[in-house]
Prior knowledge:
- By secondary structure, the protein is of the alpha/beta class.
- The protein contains 13 helices and 6 strands.
- It folds into 2 domains: about 20-165 and about 250-320, Rossmann fold; about 170-240, no CATH class.
- The chain has helices at about 20-30, 40-55, 55-60, 70-80, 85-90, 135, 170-185, 195-215, 225-230, 240-255, 275-280, 290-300, 305-320; strands spanning about 65-70, 95-100, 115, 130-135, 155, 265-270.
- Strands 3-2-4-1-5-6 form a 6-stranded parallel beta sheet.
- The protein is elongated, with a radius of gyration of 22 Å.
Amino acid sequence: MWKKKALKPIRISGIPEKLQPVKDMLRALATSRSGRKAPLQEELDQLRQLAQTEPHYWHDRERLLLIVNSYDQAEWAYRELKLSELAHTALPGEMRYLAQTNGSNEEAMADDMVYRSDIEDFARTNGKILIAPLQAIGRGYNILNQHGKAGFGAVYFLTRPMPYPADTQSLARELNRRTLDWCEDTKLTLWQEPMLQEKAVHLRQKASEYWRKAELRSYYHTLKHEDENHNNDTTYSERFDLAATTAGYIIQACGRLLRGGVPFHAFFADAAWGPNSAKDRKVRETSKTSLLTAMIEVLQEYVKQPIGYALYASIVDALVDIQGFEAEY
Length: 329
């Protein structure tokens, strides 16, 4: 997405100061420009038109799901949306953000938020736009309309998700998985030691080194791929692992829009999804520069297997045909 005046890419992920980019993104999406309606309003209008021309798939699905990374970002985005021109014509309760069930915001009104425990009822209210964190919406909920089909017709991934640097549980799960990989690789140098104690010492050193490096990760472009390390002891790909995990989150979120076998529209708004092509649409992204490209490559590997093909083939077909995004696989 683009700022109204400067026409520069709006990047949220990878930027230390999160509040202003979130505001910029919502302002761009909710503001009309050059005689055109605001992008969010255009999408709502298109969903209403589709509901008339193809009611079997689109009736009562004129709702937008805006995905961010945290509850704080959801509230920031909502407050900016309330200041936009869209809010001038919106009825109370049409625009909301997801809040934690045990949260307490005395300043918030009932029409501003929807608690996570009540999210399945959103499509039965007059709600039209819901802003929610990715992992809070990803699984466990069926947000259906009156016909038992997905209540949302479009999803906007406003941010590119990245693991929290201090998430020790996530690092522990990763290290556990990596340890299993090392145990299966008989060619690792540490297994060539003659004594069992020496093997154990070297394994512990390797695990400690891996943990320290994992804690220092900061930007996507610094993640390593096995072909770039030239190290016989490297049996993993940081980039591949992150892409696979992120693809899982994205697919889970899209599951909220697939119930009943219906289609949906998806938008990747954060410039961090494709930083080079966001600056120049003629530039093709690679998996080294774009997490979205890496995700597509991972899913393309999955669909080579029968089960993967049955699960992800239609998603891969859609991802490789994203408008305004060119990539090299």
